[in-house]
């Protein structure tokens, strides 16, 4: 996870000024006065430092070269555009790191020899939850690592402050639970201290809340807490809801989907980001109508792999891939498709109203990328809220496939603060590159023959093979092999998305899918703009006086 750095001292005083609703007018006035005095003092200090820096620039350069550690001693404070982050990393060996995104310096680290990852869907995972961010001053941020104990298999928790690395609510060596964990989730609402609790489900379907002080939130919202468990061994996907039972909370089974274990095996279960920002609810077409997106936050993608027997003269057993779109609250099957003579490994990206995934076509012996986009149609069912319990309306599903000329190991999509910027798909190539392609290239509405309407929309004509441009390689000459995953995070600038790839190496960079439209260029001519504005102001004043003088002379006539 990428954690926002805390604000500076002056910004913290601003937060303190508006943080309490119990202060009277005099107290708020004094806080405002102290804040402005502090800002003035900081401004004077900055100007003095700039003057001293110009005078002793060569001396500072020599001193920095001798010390060799100029950035390590800087305070961990947020920059103007929130581009610098603290990256929290958890390894399969049981180590937790806090790394600066600016220089890769390790701020703190912990080692838990008894911490082991969960096994599921052909991969091992340790779960990292961000329970509180740095946005809720003066409450400190908090993260929690969830895994299992190597010896007993019971749950293992470690909660900490991601900025300082100090333990919170758990011992420094971690907390071992007295039960196993079958599923985890986060509460949908915050408590009074802006902390989001973690729900832990044990084999007896009992719900535990961590930390315990968040139990009051569960008591208020238990009717809207749902979970699902996909069992790879049996092929069953079961959905649960929270119900009270004698002072405790249990998960009641409300739906079950059987994916026939004998025919296929679950290999991927991919949901959406919990707090994903979607800017536009529709897509404007060339005829000025709107195609509304199917935005279901409870939609999950389930991928299975199996075999099928071809009923033909040749016969034979071939691999097949099935993809299911499932509502995790009601168990409603929204969509299903199958790819025969195809095999994995499969990587899925699920965002907004679209799904992008890859597979190997055994018949054509090539890697293919498939894209699905879901729409409600030209009439929107509910523009203010979405409910899985409303009458299920089958969405319009648009599909298309493309040829990927290079093999990939994983992929992810960019995210921004408000979701306004166009999306990019980041591919980790097995040749060692990170390739950034616009999502517009993976559009199922790309026409074979362009029409006037599609040209007005700006839709690119369909070409089967995706282009690989050398300028789209975002890691330049830094080769990255055996990339296990890509994590993206928004920055303070809407145009910018932060990208971290991890595997054998860690690589951090920034991308601008729609260019940097919210920052002025370095060669921006401030003098010319200022001169034009000043000239317009002078002309306005002169014209106003001339008009008043002419009106006065006309009145005397």
From TrEMBL:
Q: Where is this region: Disordered?
A: 49-75
Give the record's membrane topology.
Single-pass type I membrane protein
Q: Output a single Gene Ontology CC term carried by this record.
A: EMC complex
Q: Keywords on this record?
A: Endoplasmic reticulum, Glycoprotein, Membrane, Signal, Transmembrane, Transmembrane helix
| UniProt-annotated location(s) | Endoplasmic reticulum membrane
Q: Locate the transmembrane regions by residue number.
A: 524-543
Q: Which residues form the ER membrane protein complex subunit 1 C-terminal domain?
A: 351-556
Main location group: endoplasmic reticulum
| Highest taxon of the lineage | Eukaryota
- InterPro entries membership: EMC1 (IPR026895), EMC1_C (IPR011678)
Q: Could you provide one GO biological process annotation from this protein's UniProt record?
A: protein folding in endoplasmic reticulum
Q: Which family does it belong to?
A: Belongs to the EMC1 family.
Name of the molecule in the record: ER membrane protein complex subunit 1
């Amino acid at each position: 996870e990428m954690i926002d750095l805390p604000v500076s001292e002056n910004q913290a005083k601003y937060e303190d000024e508006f943080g309490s609703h119990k202060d009277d007018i005099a107290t708020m006035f004094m806080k405002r006065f102290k804040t402005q005095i502090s800002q003035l003092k900081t401004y004077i200090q900055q100007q003095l430092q700039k003057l001293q820096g110009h005078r002793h620039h060569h001396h500072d350069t020599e001193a920095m070269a001798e010390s060799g550690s100029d950035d390590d001693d800087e305070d961990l404070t947020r920059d103007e555009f929130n581009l610098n982050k603290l990256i929290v990393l958890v390894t399969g060996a049981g180590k937790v790191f806090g790394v600066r995104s600016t220089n890769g310096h390790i701020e703190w680290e912990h080692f838990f020899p008894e911490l082991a990852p969960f096994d599921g869907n052909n991969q091992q995972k340790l779960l990292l939850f961000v329970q509180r961010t740095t946005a809720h001053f003066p409450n400190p941020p908090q993260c929690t690592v969830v895994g299992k104990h190597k010896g007993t298999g019971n749950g293992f928790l470690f909660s900490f402050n991601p900025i300082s690395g100090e333990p919170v609510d758990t011992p420094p060596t971690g907390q071992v639970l007295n039960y196993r964990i079958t599923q985890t989730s986060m509460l949908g609402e915050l408590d009074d201290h802006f902390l989001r609790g973690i729900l832990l489900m044990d084999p007896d379907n009992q719900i535990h809340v961590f930390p315990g002080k968040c139990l009051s939130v569960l008591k208020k919202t238990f009717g809207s807490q749902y979970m699902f468990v996909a069992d790879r061994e049996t092929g069953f996907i079961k959905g649960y809801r929270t119900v009270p039972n004698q002072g405790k909370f249990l998960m009641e089974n409300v739906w079950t989907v059987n994916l026939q274990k004998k025919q296929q095996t679950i290999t991927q279960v991919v949901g959406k980001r919990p707090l994903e920002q979607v800017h536009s609810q529709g897509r404007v077409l060339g005829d000025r109508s709107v195609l509304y997106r199917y935005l279901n936050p409870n939609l999950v993608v389930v991928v299975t792999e199996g075999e099928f027997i071809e009923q033909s003269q040749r016969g034979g057993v071939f691999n097949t891939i099935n993809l299911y779109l499932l509502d995790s609250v009601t168990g409603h099957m929204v969509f299903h498709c199958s790819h025969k003579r195809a095999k994995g490994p499969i990587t899925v990206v699920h965002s907004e109203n679209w799904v992008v995934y890859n597979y190997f076509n055994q018949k054509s012996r090539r890697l293919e990328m498939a894209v699905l986009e879901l729409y409600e149609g030209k009439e929107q069912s509910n523009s203010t809220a979405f409910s899985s319990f409303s009458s299920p309306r089958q969405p319009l599903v648009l599909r298309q496939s493309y040829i990927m000329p290079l093999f990939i190991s994983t992929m992810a999509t960019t995210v921004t603060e408000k979701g306004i910027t166009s999306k990019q798909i980041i591919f980790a190539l097995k040749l060692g590159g990170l390739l950034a392609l616009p999502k517009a290239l993976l559009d199922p509405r790309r026409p074979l023959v362009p029409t006037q309407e599609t040209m007005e929309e700006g839709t690119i004509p369909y070409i089967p093979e995706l282009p690989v441009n050398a300028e789209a390689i975002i890691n330049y000459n830094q080769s990255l092999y055996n990339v296990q995953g890509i994590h993206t995070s928004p920055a303070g600038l809407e145009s910018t998305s932060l990208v971290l790839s991890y595997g054998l190496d860690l690589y951090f960079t920034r991308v601008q899918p729609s260019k940097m439209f919210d920052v002025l260029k370095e060669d921006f001519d401030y003098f010319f703009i200022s001169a034009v504005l000043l000239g317009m102001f002078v002309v306005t004043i002169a014209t106003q006086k001339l008009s008043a003088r002419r009106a006065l002379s006309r009145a005397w006539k």
